[in-house]
Amino acid sequence: MTVAEAVATSDRPAHQAGGGGDRRTKKAWKVSPLILVFVFVPFVVEAVWVFWPALQGFWLALTHWDGLSAPTFVGFGNFKDMASDPIFLTALKNTAIWLVLFGGLSVIGGFGMALLLQRERRGVGIYRAALFTPVVFSLVVTALIWRVFYQPDGLVDSVLRGVGLGDFIRPWLADPDTALYAVILPALWRQIGYVMVLYLAGLKAVDPALYEAAKVDGASAWQRTLYVTIPQLKGVNSVVLSVIVIDSLRSFDIVWSMTKGGPYHSSELLSTYMYSTAFQSTQLGYASAIAVVIFILALAVILGYLIRAFREEA
After folding, report:
1. Which residues on adjacent β-strands are paired with residue 73?
2. 64: helix, coil or strand?
3. CA distances in angstroms from 240 to 90, 123, 169, 203, listed in the order given
4. Which of 65, 208, 245, 294 could cysteine-pair with 71, CB 3.0–4.6 Å?
5. How is residue 166 annotated by DSSP?
6. Is omega for the bond preceding 263 within 30 degrees of 0, making it cis?
C-alpha cells in the first residue's frame, strides 16, 4: 500500500473503512439479557407491590371507603375533617414531639458514641457490640423487654429507689403524662446503636491528615470535632437524617406493642392512628389521607435539608 492509499484510508469514516467502528459501537451498546433480567424483574416487582399501591393510596385518600362497598369520591373532604379531629391533632403533636426527641437524641447519642469508640483500642469491640445488640432485636421484642422493665417494682422502679428518687415512681405506661416519653426511651435504646454504626463508617473515611493539620494549628479536640469532623460528615448526615425521619414517622411496632396509642390517645402517633382507623374503624379512605400526610411530612423534612445542603455547597 502506498502512502497516498494509507492516507486516503485513514481519512475515510469508520463505517466506510471496513465497518470496524460500527461493529465496535454495536458491541459497546450490547447489553447482556441476564443484566436486563436483574434490572427489570426487581423493577416490575417494586412497581406492582410498592408504586401501584402507593398511587392507589393517594386515590383512596380522596374517597370514603369501608373496604367492602365501592369507594365514594369526596375530594379533599378527608383532609378537611382532619382539622376538626382532636385525635388526629393529638397524634400530629405527638409525632412532632417524637420526631424531635427520638430523632435529635438518636443523632446526638449515636454521634457521641461513634466519637468515643472510633479509636481502635483494647476492648472497644465489646462496647460497640453491646451498643449495636439492641438493633438486632425486633421492635416487638424490644417492647416486650421494656414492658417488663416498666412494671411496678420492675427494673426502672428499683433503680429509682436505689438512687433515692422513689418519689418519681409512677405507672409509666398508664400515666398520660409519661406514656409517650416512656415509649421513646426503648426506641432510643435500639436506634442509637444503628446511628452509631453509620457515623463510625463515616469517621473511618475522614482523612487523618486533616486532624494532624488542625493539631499543628493549635486546634483543641472540640475545635477539631466542630471544624473538621462535622463538615466531613455531610454525606453521612444526609443518610442519617433520611433514616431518622423515615423511622420516626413510620414508628408503629413499639408504640402499638406497649400502649396501642393510649392511655386516652396520649401516646398516639400518626402511624398508630392510621392503623386503628383503617383496621379497627374500617375508615380506609380517612386512613389513606393520614398516610398521605405522613408521606408529605417525610418528604418536606428530607427535601428541606437536602436543598439547604446543596445551597451551602454551591
Report:
1. 63
2. strand
3. 27, 27, 35, 13
4. 65
5. G
6. yes
Radius of gyration, CA atoms only, the chain: 28
State the pLDDT at residue 167: 87
Task: Report the distance separating Cα 262 and Cα 192, nearest Å.
Answer: 25
140: left (phi over 0), alpha (psi -120 to 50) or beta: alpha
pLDDT above 70 for 207: yes
- Determine which of 2-6, 57-61, 188-192 has the lowest per-residue pLDDT on average: 2-6
> Of 187, 195, 190, 186, which Cα lies nearest the Cα of 107?
195
- Please check whether residue 65 is in contact with residue 285, taking contact to mean a CB–CB distance below 8 angstroms: yes
Judged against a pLDDT cut of 50, whether residue 5 lies above it is answered with: no
> In this predicted model, what pLDDT tens digit does every residue of 141-154 receive, in sequence order?
899 999 999 998 88
Whether residue 174 contacts residue 289, with contact meaning beta carbons closer than 8 Å, is answered with no
Question: H helices within the chain, ranges in order?
Answer: 3-11, 20-29, 33-46, 52-60, 77-82, 86-117, 124-136, 139-150, 155-162, 179-204, 208-216, 221-224, 230-232, 234-249, 253-258, 270-279, 284-313
Q: Which among 226, 289, 232 is positioned nearest to 80, based on CA atoms?
A: 289
159-188 pLDDT per residue, tens: 999 998 888 888 999 999 999 999 999 999
In a 13 Å sphere around the CA of 164, the CA atoms on its Cβ side amount to 0
Q: Residues with Cβ < 8 Å from 186, sequence gap 6 or more?
A: 142, 143, 145, 146, 254, 258
